[in-house]
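Let us practice reading a record.
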Amino acid sequence: MMNSSHYDVIIVGAGPAGLSTALHLAHVAPSLAERILLLEAATHPRRKVCGGAITFHGAEQLRQLGLDMDVPAAVVHNVAFRFGHHEFTTESQNTMHIIQREAFDASLASEVCSKGIEIRGGERLGDLRPVSQGIELTTNKGVYQASVVVGADGSNSVVRQKLGIRSTMGVARLLRAMTPVDEQTTPAFTHHTAVFDFTCMQQGVQGYIWDFPCFVDGQAFLNRGIFDSRIASRPRGDLKAAFATALTERGIAWDSIKLEGHPVRWFNPRSVFARPRVLLAGDAAGVDPLFAEGISYAMEYGAIAASTIVEAFSQKEFTFADYRNRILRHDLGHMLLTKVRIAKMLYRLPFPRICSLLWRFAELAPPAFNRRIGAMLGVFSLKG
């Protein structure tokens, strides 16, 4: 039986962007809580392919919401940037917390439910269309109407597709493998280090390979992956071949891993972020094209979306014509624009020798200089 229900706000997607939007709405407009619904295609806890890094701005969002990082996490104090035989390290306490998305998202979902906001799992959006005074959404289980819809349903956003928002640029690729390690002898754990290895640029990959320490059910693992931004218009490297080479160099046999992958939509300031009564947030709107960092930025999108929605209800004006400017004026927009510029510069470098010279210079530079590099890249705050 198909049921029809009306809500003030329906959020499609219960990942960090959607859950953050709900939590910020509950924080600034508690009266809205019982009129908010989250629709999630899966059911928490659900598996997500992700590097799992929460940086300082994600931690700041949790602090603003009065939440603790109450899930198992590997704490990173050092970030190593590598290119071939060259490497430099930036150091800052609690630079990153590496979590498992299943646990982190489920924890946020529990907080959302504690605010009286309903999450309906196993509901996959099938259609979305404007109707009188709102938006009608059809899922595999029901028909709903909302005054406002937030599309927080990832890089392959159905909301984005149904709105007819097309983009001819800006979709990157990720591959990941989880490998068990000895916590007592693995440098990533003993030295609390995350590695970003850009050597794969020599193979035509416009990105890097990561090695992050993490825990899965109490067991130490390295979350290893490769990111290809595809930001430069030139022949693309073989992502699998580059990843296989890197894993072999790390003593990991290709046939021993479970390979997972997904697309990432990176931030394009000229893209469309809203239609009347509909906002996009998180990966559906676009995230970091330099590192493909998603969690922390998704939570910041939630804060912007929530403030925009509260003002819309206050003024009874739902065009969301100013949403793009709100994003661009926010610290989120400033950092994403910076990362777009750096990614275009770095990943378009035509000669590996130039990268080698850049890394060699950073190797010889004083720690304070490299800390500024880390801050410029958005890895950590100089205030921390």
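A brief commentary: The first strand starts at residue 3 and ends at 12.
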